[in-house]
Specification:
167 residues; alpha+beta; Glutaredoxin; two-stranded antiparallel sheet; globular
Amino acid sequence: MIKVGDTLPDARLFEFVEVAGEGCAVGPNGFAVRERTAGKRVVIFGLPGAFTPTCSAKHVPGYVDAAQRLNDAGIDEIWCVSVNDAFVMNAWGRDLQTSGKVKMIADGAARFTQALGLDQDLSERGMGIRSQRYAMVVDNGVVKTLNVEAPGKFEVSDAESILTTLR
């Protein structure tokens, strides 16, 4: 499992872009994790799945509500990463009104999640390979804080816990 002081794996993730911009076409756009985190402080939080109860009611909304305070604490971007496709992550972000606050990032094949060593097999529950629930602060691609939840818990990966580590 990745740990504090490690560099993020150079995986490729996807973000759905609704408006074409410089270097970004409308639709799913892939990017290299190390390239996107270079020179930035990023909070990355992972969770088991889009539209799931705790993720939708508490985890993502907590980061949406805390986005300005995280930015004020020196965080450049906030990423929600889930083993779902970019279309699902975009729809979920629209539903939770994350625009401009939390980037909804797709790890459809679980490559990033597995490279972190934070995957879990939820096949018996009909979900397949998914992410454990976690949050990390990354500075220039290096993990500075890593909070991984115990199975079935939501106590250390929330936005308030990350804000505490930044104080």
